[in-house]
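S1.2 Input.
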Amino acid sequence: MIKKILHIIFYSTILFCVFSFFSLFISVLSNKINHSFPNFRIGFPFNYYYQIQINNGNCIEIQHGTTKTHVIYNFIFCVFAFLVFLKFKQKNNQNPTHP
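S1.3 Output.
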């Protein structure tokens, strides 16, 4: 049982990292196209990190922040998504269809 829980946590963490990387990649790419770089947001479906550039006359300031609860929500989303994937995989293994 513990091995299965560790398996779920491990693969959910990998899924969380992949979602975070793709959300960062898409955010950076879209902001680069819109010429608003280095503004970006990380997190899917909840943004848990943001960075924005503010121009105050001659001073350029970069502000950033995190939302810790959104990190937890995103990880729970990844656990749920992985469990749904396992359920579909288990269902397909029980009822194989051969042409």
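S1.4 Remarks. The chain has a mean pLDDT of 87.
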